Amino acid sequence: MTQSELYKYVTAYFQATMPAPKTELHYNSPFQLLVAVRLSAQCTDKRINMVTPALFERFPDARAMYGVEFDELLPYIKSVSYPNSKCRDLLAMAKMIVDDFGGEVPEDIEGLQRLPGVGPKTANVVASVLYGAKVIPVDTHVFRVSARIGLTVNAKTPIQAEKQLEAGFDESIRNLAHHWLLLHGRYVCKARKPLCDKCGLSEQCIMHNWASAEC
Question: What CATH class has 3-21+136-214?
């Protein structure tokens, strides 16, 4: 199977099994999604969804968080990974959104990356989820699954994987492809114990075929 055929095969599989994938983070506004995505770095969505209800009740938007003291915000996010640095980022982020963007989260990736703590992956996720940007953010799940299936070849970094995936998937479904690969990695193609017997892609999976040959 050629790379082009593989991408079509994987696309058809996910369109049939996961036609409307979406982020599992809970949010009610662009600002809340941005905050949730920033908090989710090196942390699970499950943990973030436990933290954000109280956080968003107290700080529903950037203006509500504007000028808040570090010690006032920190207790709301202390159970997430790296709470101190994330707390500083959220406070600086809220300030810039109010001061430079009129209280509204920027819609373009370049504008998003101006915000403190917002790197390419976070910006791509927010732009993809909110605005349908034709990008494929690569987190650990996407990086792992795309390599195992064979969608990426010898990609050493997330950026390299992103370029290959964006070249392989049709532009119209790139934002869906991100969720397909992420959710597949979270629930089926797990890092340590992949559920190959429950995966409809196992026949085309490099790792599965390698393991079978070893056996």
Answer: mainly alpha
pTM of this prediction? Answer: 0.85
**Reported confidence tier of residue 215, pLDDT bands at 50, 70, 90:** very low
Question: Percent helix, strand, coil in the chain (nearest 5)?
Answer: 65, 0, 35
Give the CA angle between residues 28, 48, 199 to the nearest 5°: 100
Residues of the chain with CATH 1.10.1670.10: 3-21+136-214
Architecture of the domain defined by 30-131:
Orthogonal Bundle (1.10)
DSSP string, 25-72: S--SSHHHHHHHHHHTTTS-HHHHHHHHHHHHHH--SHHHHTT--HHH
Q: Kindly list the catalytic residues.
A: 121, 139
Closest CA to 148 of 187, 203, 198: 203
